[in-house]
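Posting for a labmate who doesn't have an account.
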Amino acid sequence: MPDKLIYATLRPLLFMLDAEKAHNLALPSLKRAHQLGLTRFLATPATDVRDVMGVRFPNPVGLAAGLDKDGRYIDALAALGFGSIEIGTVTPRAQTGNPQPRMFRLPKAQAIINRMGFNNAGVDAFVANVQASQFFQNKEGVLGLNIGKNADTPIEKAADDYLFCLEKVYPYASYVTVNISSPNTKNLRQLQSTTELDSLLAQLKQGQFRLADKYKRYVPLALKIAPDLDLEQIQAIAGALMRHKIDGVIATNTTVNRDAVVGLPHAEESGGLSGAPVFAASNKVIRGLKSELGDAIPIIGVGGIFSGDDATEKIHAGASLVQLYSGLIYRGPSLIRECAASLAKLP
C-alpha cells in the first residue's frame, strides 16, 4: 500500500528527532499534504456503521485524544479514514504544560512516555479551530471534544473548569469526553474516587440537560478513566456511571506502571506510559467494566492497539469502538485500515 511504504520511509527520519519535535513536524506536514490534495490517494476503510451513544460512527476505529490538542489538524486527520476524531484535552485557559523534554519513545517496547500536562491554547481557540474545519462545517463525521481542568485550578474547584468547557464545546461536539485520568495534572486522578466522582458527574449531567434544552440537541457525555484501577475501583466507577446515566466510558488513558519497561532507556521518566505495555491493563479494565455495565453503557477501548487482531481483542473484551494513538505513531496510517478491516469481519 502506498501509505504504508511512505510511512516506512519517513518513520526512521522522524524517530531521529526528539519525539515532540517530530510530532510538531509531522502534523503540519500532514495538513499541508491534505491542502495539496495528496491525502486523496490514501485508501480509506470501507463504511462499517456502528451506532454507539446515540451517535452513528462511519466505522469503529477512532483517533484518541492527545494527538491534536487544539483541533488544528481535524481535516487532515479525518482524511486518514478514521470513523471518529477526538481532539483535546482542552482547558478553560491556555497553558504551556510541563517543561520540555516531556515526551519519550521506548521503541523496544513499542511505547511512549509523556508528561505533556494538557498543553493547549485554551477553549476559545479550540472552538474557533473546530468551527473553521470543513469536517465540522460540512458535518462530515463524528467529532469528540475532550475537556479537562487547568493545572492551577484547585481540585476542589475542578468541576467549575469542566462545566465551563462543557458550555463552550457543547454546540460543536458529536460527543464530549471528560478526562479525569491523565497522570500529568496534579491530583486529577483523585476525581476517580467515589465521592468526588459522584459530585462531578452530577454537576456535569445537570449541565448536559440544561445545554440539551438550550440547543435542542442531546450531546452524549463519556468519561475517560485510567488503567491503574483495581476491581473494587472499577466497580465503584461503573456504579457512578450507572447512577448518573453517563452515556459512555473510554478505557483507558496512560499508565504510571513501569513493570513492562524496566531497564529500557527513558523507562524512569515520569508521566503516562502508552503503547503496547498498556494493552493488557486496558483490556482488564474493559472486561471489568463490561461485567458491571453489561449493555447499559458502551465502552470505547483504547490502549496498545498495534494490529487488527489487537483491535478485535478489545471488542471481545467488551468494547463497542476502539481508538488509536501510539500504534499510529509506530505503524502509520495503514493501521487504521487494518483495524477497520478486522472489525468489519466480526459478527
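Reply:
Got it, the C-alpha cells are right above this. The chain has twelve helices and 13 strands.
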